Target: Ribosomal RNA large subunit methyltransferase H
Amino acid sequence: MHINLLCVGRLGERYLEAAQEEYCKRLQPYTRLEITEVRDEPFRDTRSRAVVEAVLAREGERLLRRLPAGAHVLALDRRGTMLSSEEFAALLGELGLQGKSRIVFVIGGALGLSGEVLRFAAERLSFSRLTFPHQLMRILLLEQIYRAFKINRGEPYHH
Ligand SMILES: C[S@@+](CC[C@H](N)C(=O)[O-])C[C@H]1O[C@@H](n2cnc3c(N)ncnc32)[C@H](O)[C@@H]1O
Model:
């Protein structure tokens, strides 16, 4: 299985990059992992709905352009479906059994994901009702993907 994290913006902090490197290293035996970043759109005033929509649309276009053909797209969105770690592992296992060889997780920028991206996704996954910074969300997702492989292989890690 080839897993791609498609993200708006960069991590920007050394400690987050170290965490990302660590999980990429841990995931090496389990999957081909690729992390793709698209440029975030600068903005000043988020009180204007038009500004927010314009930022989301531009970032959304960049994300949609980078989606590989035939990929199964899972959007990270706090309004999406909440799963336990076991259910998340089962979902990845099921996608593998269905022959979905390329999974793309999409993480939005500071203002979220555009309607176009959310509609394009096969599923929307929530990691809780809390809003996380997109940089932290990337690390949380990497850890849960790693946990999912450990669960699916029956290897010690998850309790
Ligand atoms: C700062 S959040 C965006 C906040 C935006 N106001 C919203 O409600 O979507 C940045 C990105 O991180 C991801 N994210 C943040 N919290 C999340 C959560 N609880 N579950 C799933 N994804 C989350 C989403 O992809 C989101 O687009």
Summary: Residues 76-78, 107-108, 110-113, 126-128, 130-134, 137 surround S-adenosylmethionine (CB under 6 Å).
